[in-house]
Design goal:
This protein is mainly α. The protein contains 39 helices and no strands. The radius of gyration is 29 Å and the shape is globular. Keywords: Signal.
Length: about 700
C-alpha cells in the first residue's frame, strides 16, 4: 500500500530508526535526540533480538541516568531479567528506590510468582485492603492463605464486605474453595447478577448481615430485580435509614427511593427519599452520589410531566457536580417537548442551563429554540425580534464542545464562511494553566522514534487516566504516526484517531485545520474511493459513516452482533451479498465490509428519494421505522408537508438514532470542509435537504 506523507510525520523522519533483519543495528539512530533515555528503547530492541544480557545492561544504564518515566520503565523491566535469586534481589532494591503502590504491586507479583509469600506479607503489612488496589489485596490474601496466617479470615472478610466487588474478588472466590460466610456468598451472587439466588441467601440469613454501605447497595439491586413486593422492600430500607448512619444511610435512602418508584403508586415518597439521599451526599460533598440521586429525581419527575421535570431542572441544575452526567437526561426532553407543542420551553431551559450544563446540551436547546423561532413555530421572548432572537440562539450553539453537528448547523444558519468559519470549527477549550509533563512526552515520542508503535496507545491512555497532561502538539504527532502505521497494520488506525479525539477534548493550544484532519482521517482510502465510485456515493458520507460506526476499527463487533467498519448485521450482509452476486464473503475483510456498507447506504438513500438524513436514520434503525416516524412527525406538528429535517431529527423517539444522525451530518460536513475546502453551509444544505 502506498504510504501517504503527512507534515506531522516529518518530525519522525529525522529520527526514525531503520533496523536490519533482527532489528539490532541502526542505520540512523535517534540516540542523539533522546540522550540517556535512548538506553531504554535500545534495551527493548535487544529484548526483541533475544539479547537479554545486553538489554539488562541498557536497562540498568537508563534506570540510573534516564529521565523520570524512562528510568522508571527501565527499572521495571530490569527486575524481570535473571534467575529467581537475581530477580528477588533486584526487586528489593527497586522497592527501596520507589515506594508507591504501583511499585509495590509489581514487586509483590514478582515475590508471589517466585513463591516468596513471606516477602509478600512483609511488604504488604502496611497496606489497607479497603483502599489499596484490589490486585494488591488479592496477592496479600493469597500469601496469608498459603502461610496459614491467622489474619487471613479477618482481612479476607473485610475485603469482601467493605468494597464494591471486582473481578479480583471473583477470581479469588472461585480459585479458593473456602468456608465463605453467607454474606460473601450473597455478594458473589449479586456480582454474577444471579439476583434470585442472592435473594434466597438473604431471606435465609439476611438478619445477620452487617449494615454496611456495600451490603445495602447489593441488597437494593437484589430487591429491584428479584423481590416480588417493592413496597415492602422500600419500607425495609426506610427502617435501615433510621438505624444506620454515614454512607450506609445514603444507600438506604437511595434504594428506598428506587423501590418506591418501582412500586408505581408512591412517587411522592420516592421523590422524598431521593432528596434525603441528596442531602446526605451534599453534606459529605460526595458529587458522584449527589448526581446519581438527582438524576433519578429528575427522571422520576419526567415520567410524571415535563412541566414538573423542567421546574426541578431549573431548581437543581446549578447544584450538580458533573454536567456531562446529565447529558442523557437532557436528551430525553426535546422529543417530549416537541410532541407536546411546548415550544417556548426550549428558551427557558437553555437560559437556565447556560453555565451549568455541558456545552453540547446548551447548544442543543439553543439551536432548537432558534429554529422554532425561525420557522415561526415558537414566539420570541418578550421585547425581542424573531431574527435577532434566533441569531442569538444560533450564536450560542456555535460553542458546542466536541459535538460538531450543532456547530455546523449554526454555521449554516448564520451564514458564516472564510476565516470565521475556520475559527468556529477549530475552536476548542484551551486550558492555559495545564502543566505539560515533558518527560512523559519523551517516553511516548521515544516509542515512535525507535519503532514501538504498539506501546504508544496503551501508554498514552494510562497517562491520560492518571491525569498526566500531554501537549496537543505531541498528541497530534503521535496520532499522525499511528495513522501512518495503520497503512501496514490496520489496528493502528483507530488508536491514532482515539488519541486525536482525546487531545481535542483537553487542549493545551489551539488546533489547526490541518491537525483537525487527524480527528477526521481518511483511512482505508483505496477501499472507500473504489466503493464510492462503484455506487456513486459521496466519499464524505461513507467516511462519516465508517467513523461514526466503528471509529475505523475493522475488528470491532457490537454487542448486537454488527461487524466491522460499517457495522453490518450478518442477515443484512447476506442480503447485500445476494444482490451483489457474492455467494461467499467475509465481513471481517475491510474491503468487503466497506463495499457492502457503501452499497447499503446508497440503496437506502435511493429508496428515500435521495434524502441523506433519513437514509442515515434508516441505516441505524431500519427504513420502515423511518417512514413511520416521518408520517407521525407531521401529525405531531399538525403539518400536511414534511418537517424540516433538522426538526424531524429532534422529534425521533430513539435517542440512539437522533445521535447517529447528528454524528453523520456533522462528520460529513467536516470531511468536505477539511479535504475539499467546501463551505460547511453547502454540505449542510446537501445532507439536510
Amino acid at each position: 500500500m502506498k504510504v501517504k506523507k503527512s507534515f506531522f510525520v516529518l518530525f519522525f523522519s529525522n529520527c526514525l530508526v531503520l533496523f536490519c533483519a533482527c532489528g539490532c543495528t541502526a542505520q540512523r539512530s535517534p540516540q542523539r535526540d533522546f540522550k540517556n533515555d535512548s538506553y531504554y528503547f535500545m534495551a527493548l530492541k535487544q529484548l526483541d533480538c533475544g539479547n537479554q544480557k545486553e538489554a539488562e545492561r541498557f536497562f540498568s544504564l537508563c534506570a540510573k541516568k534516564g529521565s523520570a518515566y524512562c528510568a522508571r520503565k527501565s527499572a521495571e523491566e530490569y527486575i524481570k531479567i535473571g534467575n529467581i535469586r537475581e530477580r528477588i534481589e533486584k526487586t528489593e532494591a527497586f522497592l527501596r528506590r520507589y515506594d508507591d503502590e504501583c511499585a509495590l504491586l509489581l514487586a509483590v507479583r514478582t515475590f508471589s510468582s517466585a513463591g516468596e509469600y513471606s516477602k509478600v506479607i512483609l511488604h504488604t503489612n502496611g497496606a489497607d485492603l479497603n483502599e489499596c488496589s484490589n490486585a494488591l489485596a488479592s496477592l496479600r490474601l493469597g500469601a496469608l492463605l498459603q502461610k496459614q496466617d491467622s489474619r487471613f479470615y479477618r482481612e479476607m472478610e473485610s475485603w469482601f464486605l467493605n468494597r464494591p466487588l471486582s473481578s479480583e474478588h471473583y477470581k479469588f472466590f472461585t480459585a479458593n474453595e473456602l468456608d465463605y460466610s453467607s454474606v460473601i456468598r450473597f455478594r458473589i451472587e449479586v456480582y454474577r447478577r444471579n439476583y434470585v439466588s442472592a435473594l434466597e441467601i438473604y431471606n435465609a440469613d439476611g438478619n445477620g448481615f452487617p449494615q454496611e454501605p456495600q451490603i445495602f447497595s447489593d441488597l437494593g439491586k437484589t430487591f429491584l430485580y428479584a423481590a416480588p413486593d417493592y413496597y415492602s422492600c422500600a419500607r425495609k430500607f426506610d427502617g435501615f435509614a433510621d438505624s444506620s448512619s454515614g454512607e450506609a444511610q445514603f444507600y438506604a435512602y437511595f434504594y428506598a427511593g428506587r423501590l418506591y418508584e418501582k412500586a408505581e403508586k408512591y412517587k411522592t415518597l420516592a421523590s422524598q427519599r431521593y432528596m434525603s439521599a441528596m442531602e446526605y451526599a451534599k453534606a459529605q460533598d460526595d458529587g458522584a452520589k449527589y448526581d446519581n440521586a438527582l438524576w433519578y429525581l429528575l427522571n422520576l419527575a419526567l415520567r410524571g410531566s415535563t412541566k414538573k421535570a423542567i421546574l426541578l431542572l431549573k431548581t437543581y441544575c446549578s447544584t450538580w457536580y458533573d454536567a456531562d452526567y446529565f447529558d442523557d437526561f437532557l436528551n430525553l426532553l426535546p422529543p417530549l417537548l416537541l410532541s407536546e407543542g411546548n415550544w417556548n420551553a426550549f428558551y427557558d431551559i437553555y437560559q437556565a442551563l447556560d453555565g451549568y450544563a455541558s456545552n453540547e446540551a446548551v447548544a442543543k436547546y439553543a439551536y432548537i429554540y432558534g429554529r422554532l423561532v425561525q420557522e415561526g413555530i415558537a414566539m420570541p421572548s418578550v421585547g425581542e425580534i424573531a431574527g435577532s432572537e434566533s441569531d442569538a440562539a444560533f450564536t450560542r450553539a456555535l460553542t458546542s464542545g466536541s459535538d460538531f453537528y450543532y456547530r455546523a448547523m449554526a454555521v449554516y444558519r448564520l451564514g458564516l464562511g472564510g476565516a470565521r468559519e475556520e475559527e468556529v470549527l477549530c475552536n476548542t477549550i484551551v486550558d492555559p494553566d495545564a502543566s505539560v509533563d515533558t518527560e512523559a512526552e519523551t517516553l511516548l515520542l521515544g516509542y515512535a522514534a525507535f519503532g514501538f508503535p504498539e506501546k504508544i496507545y496503551p501508554e498514552y491512555m494510562a497517562l491520560y487516566s492518571d491525569g498526566v497532561v500531554i501537549s496537543t502538539g505531541v498528541s497530534m504527532k503521535l496520532a499522525a504516526f499511528l495513522n501512518e502505521c495503520g497503512e501496514n497494520k490496520y489496528e493502528y488506525y483507530p488508536q491514532g484517531l482515539r488519541i486525536a479525539a482525546r487531545a481535542f477534548t483537553r487542549t493545551t493550544a489551539p488546533v489547526s485545520k490541518e491537525e483537525m484532519k487527524l480527528l477526521f482521517p481518511r483511512d482505508y482510502k483505496t477501499f472507500v474511493e473504489a466503493a464510492c465510485t462503484e455506487f456513486n456515493l459521496p466519499q464524505e458520507a461513507l467516511y462519516a459513516l465508517i467513523r461514526s460506526e466503528s471509529f475505523f476499527d475493522a475488528e470491532i463487533v457490537s454487542s448486537a452482533g454488527a461487524i466491522g467498519l460499517s457495522q453490518l448485521m450478518p442477515d443484512t450482509a447476506a442480503d447485500i451479498a445476494r444482490k451483489l452476486k457474492m455467494p461467499e464473503f467475509d465481513l471481517r475483510d475491510a474491503e468487503t465490509n466497506v463495499r457492502f456498507g457503501a452499497f447499503y447506504l446508497e440503496e437506502l438513500n435511493s429508496r428515500l428519494d435521495g434524502a441523506w438524513l433519513p437514509a442515515f436514520f434508516a441505516y441505524n434503525a431500519g427504513i420502515t421505522r423511518v417512514r413511520r416516524w416521518i408520517k407521525d412527525s407531521r401529525l405531531s406538528f399538525n403539518s400536511k408537508t414534511a418537517l424540516p429535517n433538522d426538526i424531524l431529527l429532534e422529534i425521533l423517539p430513539f435517542d440512539e438514532t437522533r445521535g447517529y444522525g447528528r454524528k453523520l451530518v456533522g462528520a460529513s460536513a467536516m470531511y468536505s470542509w477539511l479535504y475539499d475546502d467546501k463551505p460547511v453551509s453547502e454540505s449542510v444544505k446537501e445532507f439536510m435537504r
